Amino acid sequence: MKGKIALEEAFCLPRHEEKQKWWAGLFAVDAEKHTREIIDIQKIRLEKMDKFGVGYTILSYTAPGVQDVYDAKEANALAVEVNDHVAEQIKGYPDRFGALATLSMHDPNVAAAELRRCVTQYGFLGALVNDTQRNDASGDSMIFYDDPSWDVFWQTCTDLDVPFYLHPRNPTGVFMDKLWAPRKWLVGPPLSFAQGVSLHILGMVTNGVFDRHPKLKVIIGHLGEHIPFDLWRINHWFEDVKKPLGLDCKRTIRDYFRDNIYITTSGHFSTPTLKYCIEEITEARILFSIDYPFESFEDACGWYDGVDLEEGTKKRIGRDNAAALFKLGNF
Ligand code: GRE
Fold first, then answer.
1. C-beta of 188 in contact with ligand 1 (< 6 A)
2. Which of 43, 140, 263, 283 lies in disulfide reach of 224, CB 3.0 to 4.6 Å?
3. What is the DSSP letter of 101?
4. Taking every annotated instance into account, which residue ranges of this chain make up the domain Amidohydrolase-related (predicted)?
5. What is the pTM of this model?
6. Does ipTM exceed 0.95?
């Protein structure tokens, strides 16, 4: 399929090359190649987009990125640097690249102001944040965005009418030491990423974020971070047990997945799982993505182009849903 839109696509600052190589050493078989690919925006990436039928890429800063910076001032300075860098890189390619703002999430007002700057000054299409914000040197303390102190930030997302992508990050501090270090091969895509994001987004549901901000649009990757598979069970426990016990979110989990939450195919190229998600949460809520360069264009596009879906469904998931969500006109 030509003209696909992809929206969980990472870049990093050239000055972080060494740091990225270290990270790639944990997650990429060829760390040098990965690092070349993630720093590049205008050359290797565009060639791959042309070769594999990706018309438009929405870029975002790599994980854990700014969410790992525990000093609030330093975190915001890095976010601003990243946003200025990517704006400069993509400005000559309005038909090929968009960007999601990188934000320091120490302070809801600061995050809101930087998001507003990126959307109004640079035309960025939303924000992407890497799960919780690290809040101390040890990594034991982290900030979630599901309590009312974050309402000012969510209000800004809905005022600007831009989506917020909740992307995974790695566990830190005592959580890393106790839960994950003894079973280190489960850190990242095999398990910890999905657990982190599903805890966070379900926290937003149960703590009433979507009730207070009914127009808020949140995207999660990896075919929904395990939640679609569990939807029946979550719904059953919310409606039949937790609500009678006092859970006071106004709507059902299915309602939030119908009206507030989108999922992408990033890093999850399974036809049976995609078909299951279409049946469970409908094709209207699903968006094609790659997760480059942690995943390859070959794997993502090779799979998606060959998937046996009805043509209209394939176009909606591959392009039209994202074009509508990000208001990309008739791209
Ligand atoms: C990411 O998307 O940021 C990521 C990692 C590490 C492994 C896989 C992955 O940071 O998708």
1. yes
2. 263
3. B
4. 29-328
5. 0.98
6. yes
**Burial of 200: CB neighbours in 10 Å, binned 0-12, 13-18, 19+:** buried
CA–CA separation, 96 and 46 (whole Å): 8
How many angstroms separate the Cα of 147 from the Cα of each of 208, 212, 272, 293, 294?
8, 11, 36, 33, 31
For the Cβ of 64 lying below 6 angstroms from any atom of ligand 1, the answer is: no
Decide: 63 in ligand 1 pocket, CB within 6 A. Answer: yes
d(CA 73, CA 75): 5
Cβ atoms of 160 and 150 within 8 Å: the answer is no
Q: Domains plus CATH for the chain?
A: 4-326 (3.20.20.140)
Per-block mean pLDDT, blocks of 10 residues, the chain (331 long): 98 96 92 97 98 98 97 98 98 97 98 98 98 98 97 98 98 97 98 98 98 98 98 98 97 98 98 98 98 98 98 98 93 62
